[in-house]
Write a structure and sequence with these properties.
about 70 residues; mainly alpha; 3 helices
């Protein structure tokens, strides 16, 4: 997924996502997604996916409020 797609899902800016990925890459000693994917595969982390990434949910309002009444 792109940084923008991840940010939209988590309600964060793409730049925040990119910064978090760069910190993550630095912690494991890689500089590119492909290297990170290989690291995860070697550590057997490649099978983990948080449940919240399986479904895209958005905040929905149950009531439609008429803002002119406020």
């Amino acid at each position: 997924m792109t940084g923008k797609a991840i940010g939209d899902m988590l309600f964060l800016s793409p730049r925040t996502i990119e910064s978090a990925l760069q910190r993550l890459y630095a912690k494991v000693g890689v500089s590119h997604f492909d290297d990170f994917a290989e690291f995860c595969h070697n550590k057997n982390y490649h099978r983990y996916l948080p449940r919240r990434f399986l479904e895209c949910k958005r905040a929905m309002f149950e009531n439609n409020y008429d803002l002119d009444e406020w």
